[in-house]
UniProtKB/TrEMBL annotation, chains A, B:
It holds the Pfam family polyprenyl_synt. SUPFAM superfamilies: Terpenoid synthases. It comes from the Bacteria. It catalyses: isopentenyl diphosphate + (2E)-geranyl diphosphate = (2E,6E)-farnesyl diphosphate + diphosphate. InterPro entries: Isoprenoid_synthase_dom_sf, Polyprenyl_synt, Polyprenyl_synt_CS, Prenyl_diphosphate_synthase. One of its GO terms (biological process) is terpenoid biosynthetic process. GO terms for molecular function: (2E,6E)-farnesyl diphosphate synthase activity; metal ion binding. It is an enzyme of class 2 (transferase). Keywords: Isoprene biosynthesis, Magnesium, Metal-binding, Transferase. Its EC number is 2.5.1.10. Belongs to the FPP/GGPP synthase family. This is Farnesyl diphosphate synthase.
């Protein structure tokens, strides 16, 4: 997994062609957050899904770095004073603390936009069929957009009228984190030429590990190690956020993470993939993670 | 032109399929700015370029509304307190004054993301070839991204090191406004199946009317009618922005608008289009506009 993360980092370092005239501080702001020590989970999922179906790792790289850009943009905007107002992330100053608010907003915008450019390069550089790349563009626009990640973010921030707190929690988890995880798996599958049935297996796997990931996040915010997490714990309580431990308790939340992970593993083992090892490894890793 | 603007507005009203679960306040914030009385210039250019080459108007509509979404997102983010800090635009309260800063940031993010979804629908709904739609996605990501509009915006806001003021002014005009105008024309052309030579003619037309548009903007900010513009004039002077009238004077700026418009018209008349009337009309309208 470390080797794959390294590959993705190298791909991201070649973010812009040399000859591109990009203002220096914009370039630095984009790279600062992209290189701030993320786990590269979503790129790993793209590549793992692609390889599970016998696809080529290289062909998945443009989409793998695209999803990391989208994830990074969402963190930069989330951290803004108008949103979560966080000064630190992963133990480093947040983007707007280093570059100022205006540049941080624009660096986020640029990362989101450039992600779509990167996806198209799967066709230009590796000959992935245009029809397939177009489906990936459509998926990303849907899952990162108003009814996907941004919708989840709004619901997290402001609350949604007419929903119970539990419905709202589920909506937030499904969209704010889950959609990009599902996207990553579908995109990797599409690049490898997945059948509809295989895409469904990947979607189910993604939905379940996505939810497990989020419940684990809730748990870590409550009892995690601040040093390992690189951020202060207890922020959910302080911001009065609805969380799984709040609803069902800590022990039941832990069991829920296990149950969701098992369901995810089952989905993938029934997907008819040529090699599911990496996907199962990632699911296991996520369940046990402490940061 | 009014009829086409009307068509685009109808297309935008059908922004999300009915069954889409989008948080209510996000939906409202997106629509508020999309329906705030924009001139629909960029969508008109998409359609005019498409029709100039004998393409179908309907097939251009998804891209026409996409570019209006991108333009609208850029205005919402530009108006934010961390950026230009504007309370009014086109005589109406800006997005963040109505919905709050966090929702305004997210509404902008959602509009940008959804624009890419809309572009893909040109293939889904009207059978535009995937290869062609992919080129439109690539163009938009390039021209709205770090070396396009966002690059121009950064340069406008913070200045760029190592450039003279005139070089910086040209960079800003070329990218902050010009790139989306060029994109609109290229996209319309692509939908109609333009040849490389025709795309070059559209690019030249777009670059010149884009620059003329911006110089005219500089002029209107200096001597325009606040009632017609729906905003205060003199803001460039107050913010000490570099403008064309500042460099070459008001009368020479007026002549520059005319010269650029004539060059644009020449490019289009030599492009070998089946009917350039609409494009020439728009160029003439832009030159004479007072708001």
């Amino acid at each position: 997994m470390a080797a794959v993360a390294e590959l993705v980092t190298t791909e991201i370092e070649g973010l812009f062609p040399e000859q591109w005239e990009v203002p220096q501080n914009l370039r630095e702001a984009m790279k600062y957050s992209l290189m701030a020590g993320g786990k590269r989970l979503r790129p790993l999922l793209v590549i793992a899904a692609c390889e599970a179906l016998g696809g080529r790792r290289e062909a998945a790289l443009p989409v793998a770095s695209a999803i990391e850009m989208v994830h990074t943009y969402s963190l930069i905007h989330d951290d803004l004073p108008a949103m979560d107002n966080d000064d630190y992330r992963r133990g480093k100053l947040t983007n707007h603390k280093v570059f100022g608010e205006a540049t941080a907003i624009l660096a986020g915008d640029a990362l989101l936009t450039h992600a779509f450019y990167s996806i198209v390069q799967a066709s230009r550089r590796f000959g992935v069929p245009a029809e397939c790349v177009l489906s990936i563009v459509e998926d990303l626009a849907e899952m990162a957009g108003p009814r996907g990640m941004v919708g989840g973010q709004i619901a997290d921030m402001e609350g949604e009228q007419g929903l119970t707190e539990l419905e709202r929690l589920q909506y937030i988890h499904l969209h704010k984190t889950g959609d990009l995880i599902v996207f990553s798996l579908l995109a990797g599958g599409r690049i490898a030429g997945a059948t509809e049935q295989q895409l469904e297996a990947l979607r189910s796997f993604g939905t379940h590990i996505g939810l497990a990931f989020q419940v684990q996040d809730d748990i870590l915010d409550l009892i995690g190690d601040e040093g390992k997490l690189g951020k202060k714990t207890g922020s959910d309580l302080k911001q009065e956020k609805v969380t799984y431990p709040y609803f069902i308790g800590l022990e039941a939340s832990r069991q829920e993470v296990e149950r969701l992970t098992e369901t995810a593993k089952l989905a993938v083992s029934e997907g008819g993939f040529s090699d599911s090892t990496r996907l199962l490894e990632i699911a296991g890793y996520l369940m046990k993670r402490d940061h």
